[in-house]
Every structure is written in structure tokens, then in C-alpha cells.
Amino acid sequence: MGVSRMVEMCGELRADKCFYELFTIGIVFALLLGYTALGLRRAISDIPSIGADSVEELVLAVTALYASFPVHELLHGLTLASLGLKPRVQVSRFGGYIPLPQVVDESSSEIDYRSLAIISLTPIIASLIAALASALPSPIDYPLLLLAMGNVALSSWDAYLLFTVRKLPGVKLAYGGASVQLLGDCDEISRRLASGLSGERYVKHWAGWTWFYFTVLFVMFLLVELGSIGFREGFTLKLGPILVFYVEPVRGGFKTGFNLPGAYGLAAILAVPSAYASKRIVERLA
After folding, report:
1. How much is the pLDDT for 235?
2. 197/166 Cα distance (integer angstroms)
3. Domain boundaries, the chain
4. What pLDDT score was predicted for residue 228?
5. Residue ranges of the chain with pLDDT lower than 70?
6. Of 15, 34, 32, 28, which Cα lies nearest the Cα of 275?
7. How many CB atoms lie within 10 A of CB 79?
């Protein structure tokens, strides 16, 4: 539960300062949730896919995807209220330009890491529940899945906050939606922020490596296509259940396909050890 703020702000974390990392995390979250729901569907049902069975369900699914943002903010608001805080809808400018309605704590009360975890994990847990429900065949399974995927993608900022500030000693926080103020030992917080938080640095490396490997996989696909023209040979890149791309010779040409979700998922996995290694190297050279 929040208490009145008695210390001055020592630092601030803002979503618009790490949009690149949040975009990367959001895509990975959505893919993981989507593949999880699809895997459960195949395990418990004879229907192998989750999709729209009617025009009405398709319209409802598109509506659910757009509704994922207000639902996400509503969950934050309900959680803030349950913690004794004062939720309020506020329109700020994301990056200084884009109007962004968000739920903030009007009282600017101090909260601890545990309270931040409750606020941040509520939308993620709700997304998991919706994804599990979408695995069961029903007239609204596809809208539920898109709502869950959109909501969990928007939770990238929540996960980023938890991962970034978890090692700040004795830090208190003031929740402002897309910005969080850091309160506590200003000398220690300033020192950590100046040197770059360990978790934040790792996420930056991981995001960079993810897009690097994704680009490498796409270039590999193009090169295989060019090579197949000359050698008339097909090639399929698949790692376990993850299909990345395929090039198959058929009468009069080739049948090709590049699996964007599969390639991105594989790139995110490959980026984990690379990010750890590059982070350690940079720290040693600094």
C-alpha cells in the first residue's frame, strides 16, 4: 500500500527512452503466448488451429485487438485502487509527440518493489488466463487470443521495470504509468543510473542481438533462394518445432516461405547467450 511521499525524486525511468527494447520484448511476449495457446489447443482438441470461423468472430477479434490497450490500462487502474492508491487517467505525450492516455497514481505515493510487482504482473497474469481460455474451442476463442496477445505485448514496459529496478537497494517508487520516479538513497541511485543498470544493459544487448540474428536469417533465406535457382535444390531451415524458412522445387519454379514468427522467435533465443557475452566484454573493456 502506498504512503505519502516524503523524499525527493532521485531519478526517473521512462518508456519512451527505451522504445526499441520494449518493442522487441513485446513481440517476443506475444509470440510466446500465441504459440503456447496454439500448443495447448493441439494437445486437447482435434482442431489444430485458432482462427475466425465467421465474419462476426473476425470483427470481434479485430475489436479485441484494438481494445487490448484500454483493457491493459483498466487492469492497472484496478490494481492501483486495490493497493489503496488513487488511479487517474492522464493523457501524456509519448516521446514528446504522440498523445498517450494512461492510468497513473494521482497521489504520487511511495510504493515498494512488491507493490510494483503486483501492478506489473496483473496484466500478464490476465493475459495468461485469456490465452488458456482461447485454447478451448469456442465462438470467441480467436478474439480472446488476440486480446491476450495484445495485452501481454503492452506488458513489455511492466516486465522491463521489474527486471531493471530489482537490484536497486532500498528504492521506493512513484508510479506514473509510462514513467516511474525513483525515490530513496539519491547518491546510490544516481551512481547506479550513471553507470547503467545491469538489467537494463542486458536488455539493450539482447534487443540488438535479436534484430541482428533476425536480419541474418532473412538474408540467409534470400541467398538460399538465389542458390536454388542455379542448383535446383531445395532447403528447409527448422530448429525443433520452429520452422524458419523453406525453399522447395516444384514444376516450373520454386515454392518458398519465410516464417516471420518462427524466425523472430529463433533470433530471440539465439540472442540470449550473445547478449550475455557482449555485455561482459563491454564491461571488461570499460
Report:
1. 85
2. 10
3. 9-194, 207-279
4. 77
5. 1-8, 95, 169, 194-198, 286
6. 28
7. 20
pLDDT at residue 7, as a whole number: 59
Angle between helices 198-231 and 19-44 (to 10 degrees): 70
User: Cell numbers at residue 125, please?
Assistant: 497474469
Can you give the pLDDT at residue 195? 61
Q: Which residues are paired to 3 by β-bridges?
A: 110
Question: How many Å apart are CA 54 and CA 24, to the nearest integer?
Answer: 32
> CA-CA distance, 172 to 182, in Å (whole number)?
6
Nine-digit cell at 171?
Answer: 528504492
pLDDT at 4 (0 to 100): 46
Query: For position 164, what pLDDT does the model report?
Result: 81
DSSP letters along the chain, please? --B---S-EEEEEEGGGSHHHHHHHHHHHHHHHHHHHHHHHHHH-S------SSHHHHHHHHHHHHHHHHHHHHHHHHHHHHTT--EEEEEEEETTTEEEEEEEETT--BB-HHHHHHHHHHHHHHHHHHHHHHTS--TTHHHHHHHHHHHHHHTHHHHHHHHHHTTSTT-EEEE-SSEEEEES-HHHHHHHHHH--HHHHHHHHHHHHHHHHHHHHHHHHHHHHHHHHHH---EEEEETTEEEEEEEEETTEEEEEE-HHHHHHHHHHHHHHHHHHHHHHHHHH-
CA distance 130 to 103: 22
9-14 and 179-183 as β-strands: parallel, antiparallel, unpaired? antiparallel
**Looking at residue 232, what is its pLDDT?**
73
